[in-house]
Design brief:
Blueprint: E1 2-5, E2 8-11, H1 14-20, E3 23-24, E4 29-30, H2 32-37, E5 57-58, E6 67-68, H3 75-82, E7 91-95, E8 99-106, E9 117-124, E10 127-136, H4 141-150, H5 159-163, E11 173-175, E12 193-195, H6 203-229, E13 236-239, H7 246-256, E14 260-263, H8 268-281, H9 287-293, E15 296-300, H10 306-323
Parallel strand pairs: 7-13, 13-14
Antiparallel strand pairs: 1-2, 3-4, 5-6, 7-8, 8-10, 9-10, 11-12, 14-15
Helix pairs in contact: 3-8, 6-7
């Protein structure tokens, strides 16, 4: 089946997931060699279309008229478009249950020694553009664990105040490898770990360590993307529910040493899908017009001394190593 959400279409079952393995991201079409290898007739596959165009109309008795479907994208690609990441190196990170970072790499697909995903960002006006993608399994879900598992907060909105009740994590590092570790580690056998606990550790320290863990994982992704692409990050554009957490975003800016920018609209997946549809429908004249709609709500500037950043990132890496390969294969 196909899932239509906010104007974006995603494959949602195993057959459609396997279908993507037949796609050649370099040509933007089904791969002839793979079709021949698996004896799959091209005629049974859907036509590959651009991300912005006419895909037919939707109708329902409850609707006053037919609604044209004019934009197709994966959710993270739509968010990249919604953040107006239209030139190589411009990067967005979505802070949701997990974290999903994409760096636009232009018309050149970048192979990743760090085992990030090389993906199609979109195709418009006959031009394919690409991105590097990395996923963190546990982002905002660590706050849900504080609420539902440890029960040190009653509502997720309380976590920032609890974390801000202490000046730092008190030396506590929480590695939320509850489902293994995603990019760039890809360790299915890692498990959650909390190190540095003393008798002075409080709920505030644990909450702070949880928030910082989200930022540490994102910083690991940035390091991998910069190494693979050869592009130094100038800023990080952020969105998603957890992007409302000011303490998180300030710590993120400190770790990365670049501004972290929260736009006025943080529901950028829906926004990007609307932009793609609007281009095809003539609502928006071009991408330059769309880029001018992107507005900054707040910029978080790095303030932590670089020596301190190096120290805590080093300790974070040590904590990650303790969490890795915990379960046997």
């Amino acid at each position: 089946m196909w899932n239509l959400t906010g104007g974006a279409v995603h494959a949602t079952d195993a057959s459609n997931a396997s279908r993507t393995l037949l796609f050649n991201i370099h040509t933007g079409d089904w791969d002839d060699e793979l079709l021949k290898l698996f004896r799959i007739p091209r005629s049974i596959l859907p036509e590959v279309r651009e991300s912005s165009g006419s895909f037919g109309d939707a109708s329902h008795p409850a609707l006053p008229s037919r609604i044209g479907i004019r934009g197709v994208a994966g959710d993270q690609q739509a968010a990249l478009f919604g953040q107006a990441c239209f030139s190589p190196g411009v990067t967005k990170n979505t802070y949701g249950t997990g974290c999903f970072m994409l760096m636009q790499t232009g018309d050149k697909p970048v192979a990743s020694p760090s085992r990030l995903l090389t993906t199609v960002a979109w195709k418009t006006n006959g031009k394919l553009e690409y991105a590097l993608e990395g996923s963190v399994f546990i982002g905002g879900a660590v706050v849900q664990w504080l609420r539902d598992g440890l029960k040190i907060i009653k509502d997720s909105s309380e976590v920032e105040a609890l974390a801000a009740s202490v000046p730092d994590s008190g030396g506590v590092f929480l590695v939320p490898a509850f489902a293994g570790l995603g990019a760039p580690h890809w360790d299915a056998y890692a498990r959650g770990a909390m190190v540095g606990i003393t008798r002075g550790t409080t709920g505030g320290h644990i909450a702070r360590a949880a928030i910082e863990a989200i930022a540490f994982q994102v910083a690991d992704l940035v390091s991998a993307m910069q190494a693979d692409s050869g592009i130094r990050l100038e800023e990080l554009r952020v969105d998603g529910g957890a992007a409302r957490n000011n303490l998180l975003l300030q710590f993120q800016a400190d770790l990365l040493g670049v501004p972290v920018i929260r736009p006025g609209v943080t529901e950028t997946t829906a926004l990007g899908a609307a932009y793609l549809a609007g281009l095809a429908a003539g609502v928006f004249p071009d991408r330059d017009f769309i880029a001018r709609q992107w507005k900054v709500e707040r910029t978080f500037e790095p303030a932590m001394p670089s020596a301190r950043v190096a120290e805590i990132r080093g300790r974070w890496s040590r904590a990650v190593e303790r969490a890795r390969n915990w379960e046997s294969a």
